[in-house]
């Protein structure tokens, strides 16, 4: 009954105009990465406000919401899961981590990945084997590969860069622009904390990198240094 109530609330919040804009923004057309996704037209602040009201729903209810065909319902479920993970004991964290990996087919756009992977997968694996990240990084599914690299954002914040660099190396030859952007972003975040580490990686691989990945990685560099990388003069 709670899930039904939540869905009714969401439909009342929806806006057809915003929904149409979201469909364009998240590339839902034929052959695009978000093909066929359905939007109600609800802003993220509105979803976060609603999540506060329903954060006590059961994990089973959250999983039901996550399996929805509606984008905002999936995002709401992930926001609630992130909150409950952060507040939960080890048993709850394990349950949410396993629930997450069992349902990656529903975490199927970049905003869904970015709002959740670094807050669930990264923290859970911080002091455990990180082999699951490499299975994700080798996946044929674009969103699982993005989950792999984005999960390392948590490690980066702890000044632990090893997994980011190893997974970036795996994904250097990836064909998807959204992976290029995510890897470049994470390399940039490494550089914010330890520039020499980022530069050592770039100096080894920048000529092999897709242009978008490199541009994201060097975005904060001084203009002259940025141009040297782009011209292959390092």
Concise synopsis of the structure shown:
The protein is 68% helix and 0% strand. It has helices spanning 2-13, 16-25, 44-53, 59-66, 71-87, 90-102, 110-114, 117-125, 131-137, 142-151, 153-157, 162-171, 177-193, 195-205, 211-217, 223-230.
The rough form would be described as globular
**Low-confidence segments:** none
Name the helicity range.
Answer: 55-70%
Count the DSSP helices.
16
Let me know the largest β-sheet.
Answer: none
What are the secondary-structure elements, in order, as H or E?
Answer: HHHHHHHHHHHHHHHH
The average pLDDT is 97
Structural class: mainly alpha
Radius of gyration, in angstroms, nearest whole number: 19 Å
The N- and C-terminal alpha carbons lie at a distance of 61 Å
**What's the total number of strands?**
0
Measured by DSSP, the beta-strand proportion falls in under 5%
Question: Which secondary structure elements does this structure contain, and how are they paired or packed?
Answer:
Blueprint (H helix, E strand, L loop, with lengths): L1 H12 L2 H10 L18 H10 L5 H8 L4 H17 L2 H13 L7 H5 L2 H9 L5 H7 L4 H10 L1 H5 L4 H10 L5 H17 L1 H11 L5 H7 L5 H8 L4
Tell me what the structure shows.
The chain is mainly alpha-helical. The chain has 16 helices and no strands. The chain has helices at 2-13, 16-25, 44-53, 59-66, 71-87, 90-102, 110-114, 117-125, 131-137, 142-151, 153-157, 162-171, 177-193, 195-205, 211-217, 223-230. The radius of gyration is 19 Å and the shape is globular. It starts with a helix and ends with a helix.
